[in-house]
Design a protein that fits this description.
about 725 residues; 17 strands; six-stranded parallel sheet; Rossmann fold; 5 domains; alpha/beta
């Protein structure tokens, strides 16, 4: 009773809470009694408290093994915020200087430090092992314990070395904690840490406030912008698999008026940290990130998590979606899915060890099952984590809100179950499906399964259908996946009973995303081009060009007019967002065009599609600042190209991107060195009179007297002088 009183007192004094959530108290009492403890608790359930509070209460220092430096820092900062003495918690990792490391070790030795966070790599260092041998350790906490398992979504080989090192340092109780572990991963963790007898505390994985939705990957950028604009001011995370896609999507969101920033491991530490802090401090609404973002990010009011690309595993998906609605409020989890993405991920696995490929393939199949199912998504997700969810309609996923029509599937299930028995419960779903559909794969032939009576018995249905039958059977408990040989299908007692006494087995066809093309909008014409307006704008451009005595293409090029004819900009600000316009050109030439469009919209009663029209990224040069600065200093262009690591042709292209987006460049100093005044005038006169600024046409006109590079430089300067 005294211990319980002390625990409650420390809960209030150190963490400001007067009561525990869920089974936190039972976990803490079990650990403090010296027992190994295994904690399975979803994101936001309060895992950290389960080892932080015992560490503060018990004698000695708790060693917390954590995978990320950023995660350690967040945890240490959080503990220190509740205590006046910063020495209560420290981390020991490669980011510390020699003097900082010495100070940490002194605080630990002097008994001031109750929690010492270490990376598994730091734990293996001989000097650290010797140091830890000399102190009193209250217990070991293995955070993000799923990193131990190759079947986990974030496998780290160094995590598998924890147990032997702990035995060298000195025995103490172990608490392993994770937010995502299937029965297979859970078994792996306990086996590897030598804690198969640990007391297991498993909280429900059901996040009832989260809404799950999967959409086909069609016009994805436009769909995302529409989704975010319908939720103004709300915080969200968008996950992409590649750094390139992160950068590209963040830029697209920005030009479409969304307050977004990028985050990935390839960015420098300062920028990454700044962007993360801006998101936490609500200076930014949306973070576009690789999965490098989010571990340990304690932002309770993330209102949506979007997966631009399907994750590699359902565990990864669950953890990433779990960052939405941690305060119990709204959390929308939207995923875009195309089977082509799965094929890409499979391709990435080629060249890896066979065992690793096999594990990756099985994890991907689980993700495909979730994406394509027409069952309640909550049911499928929870079943994956070994939890039964028996509510008929969760009312909070796309499949439950828009259910498909059911039909009787008893005969199909009997066929599938009988095949499992015939093949002696030794095969995975893909093999069984090949047999049923009559596909003579190498494996089917090698086991002579092309000669059994079940071969081709279900060929009137495709592989999607039979995969769905096996998924339904799994959810209903008629079959299971073997834990030791994950993926091997076994029949349960309920399945055997079904064979002997068949009952109703209602099924629905799953979603078929294979027919959906992965379409992306590659240009600005996201709305229908208004041909009438386009002609009016061309006439207006011609009129202005005559009055100013400059070619029409210098004012606005055709793609800019097409953009205006699709999006109906009625203010200078909106006009500046059109392709190839920019603020300078909009102010200089825009008024007459805006007046014309306003009049046209009013007379024809046109409803502008401004809310959901995707604005594309202009062809921006990433070398823009350097190029402008060096040209202002009249640097030799060959030297400039060399310093930027590019050839002369590439430099001219970069300069064109700058000028055509509305910024002035003055390269007269260079042109004067390669062409005399008369030659320059001749080329300028040509562009003054030409209908187009096409370089091939100019080259033909001068019959090769000037090189393509010379013509491009003069055209660039012509646009800069007259258009910007």
């Amino acid at each position: 009773m005294i211990q319980k009183d002390l625990i409650l007192k420390n809960l209030k004094d150190y963490f400001g809470f007067s009561q525990f959530k869920g089974n936190q108290l039972d976990i803490i009492e079990n650990l403090m009694s010296g027992h190994d403890t295994f904690v399975l608790m979803p994101t936001g359930g309060g895992k950290s408290l389960c080892y932080q509070l015992p560490a503060i209460t018990l004698e000695g220092t708790a060693i917390v093994i954590s995978p990320l430096i950023a995660l350690m820092k967040n945890q240490v900062d959080a503990i220190r915020a509740f205590n006046q003495d910063d020495s209560i918690a420290h981390f020991l990792n490669s980011s510390l200087t020699k003097s900082e490391t010495t100070r940490v070790k002194q605080d630990v030795t002097n008994g001031k430090t109750k929690l010492l966070y270490v990376a598994p790599e730091s734990l293996t260092k001989e000097s650290n092992i010797e140091f830890l041998k000399s102190i009193k350790i209250s217990f070991y906490a293995v955070d993000e314990a799923h990193c131990i398992s190759e079947w986990g979504h974030d496998f780290r080989p160094e995590y598998r070395r924890i147990k032997p090192i702990v035995e060298v340092i000195g025995k103490a109780p172990i608490i392993a904690l994770t937010a995502t572990a299937t029965p297979k991963v859970q078994h792996d963790i306990q086996k590897n840490l030598g804690m198969l007898d640990a007391t297991l505390y498993k909280s429900s994985f059901n996040r009832s406030n989260l809404y799950y939705e999967v959409k086909p990957k069609i016009n994805t950028n436009k769909e995302i912008i529409k989704f975010i604009k319908e939720r103004p001011g709300k915080s969200g995370i968008i996950y992409c698999l590649s750094r390139k896609k992160v950068e590209e999507l963040a830029s697209i969101l920005q030009v479409n008026g969304i307050n977004a920033m990028a985050y990935h491991a390839g960015m420098d530490a300062h920028t990454r940290s700044k962007n993360q802090d801006m998101f936490l401090m609500e200076d930014v609404d949306v973070i576009v990130a690789t999965i490098a973002f989010g571990m340990g990010i304690d932002k309770p009011d993330v209102r949506f998590v979007i997966h631009y690309d399907i994750p590699k595993s359902l565990e990864g998906y669950y953890q990433e979606t779990g960052r939405a609605g941690r305060d119990g409020g709204e959390g929308h989890c939207l995923t875009f899915y195309s089977y082509k993405d799965i094929q890409k991920l499979e391709k990435f696995m080629q060249g890896k060890p066979v065992a690793e490929q096999e594990i990756g393939k099985q994890l991907l199949l689980e993700t495909v099952s979730y994406a394509e199912t027409s069952l309640c998504r909550r049911t499928v997700l929870l079943h994956y984590f070994g939890e039964n969810y028996n509510t008929e309609n969760c009312g909070h996923c796309d499949n439950c809100l828009h259910p498909k029509k059911e039909f009787e599937g008893q005969s199909f299930l009997l066929t599938a179950l009988n095949l499992i028995l015939t093949t002696k419960e030794k095969f995975k779903t893909d093999h069984l499906v090949d047999v049923l559909t009559g596909k003579s794969s190498a494996q089917v032939k090698s086991y002579k399964h092309d000669t059994i009576k079940e071969f081709g018995i279900g060929k009137e249905k495709d592989e999607h259908f039979w995969n769905m039958i096996f998924r339904r059977a799994l959810i209903k408990g008629y079959i299971r996946k073997d834990i030791e040989q994950y993926g091997i299908i076994k029949i349960t007692q309920a399945g055997k009973d079904f064979i002997n006494n068949p009952e109703t087995f209602l099924i629905t066809d799953d979603h078929n995303f294979e027919e959906c093309d992965d379409i992306e909008i590659s240009n600005s014409k996201t709305a229908v081009l208004d041909e009438t307006l386009f002609k009016l704008l061309k006439n207006q451009r011609k009129k202005i060009s005559k009055s100013l005595n400059i070619p029409p293409f210098v004012i606005f090029q055709d793609p800019s007019l097409e953009d205006m004819s699709s999006n109906y900009p009625t203010t200078i600000e909106e006009l500046a967002e059109m392709q190839g316009v920019g603020k300078g050109k909009a102010k200089r030439f825009g008024k007459d065009f805006i007046d014309l469009i306003n009049k046209y919209v009013e007379e024809n009663d046109i409803e502008k599609p401004k809310d959901f029209v995707l604005k594309t990224i202009a062809n921006k040069s990433k070398f823009k600042v350097q190029i402008i600065q060096h040209i202002d200093l009249k640097m030799n262009l060959k030297d400039l190209a060399l310093s930027l690591g590019m050839d002369d042709g590439r430099l001219v292209k970069e300069m064109e991107a700058i000028v055509f987006s509305g910024t002035k460049l003055d390269v007269h100093y260079h042109i004067d060195n390669v062409l005399d005044e008369e030659q320059q005038d001749e080329i300028y006169d040509y562009f003054q009179e030409a209908d187009s600024d096409n370089i091939s046409e100019a080259y033909e006109e001068f019959e090769g007297d000037y090189s393509e590079e010379e013509l491009r430089l003069l055209r660039l300067q012509f646009h800069s002088d007259y258009g910007n």
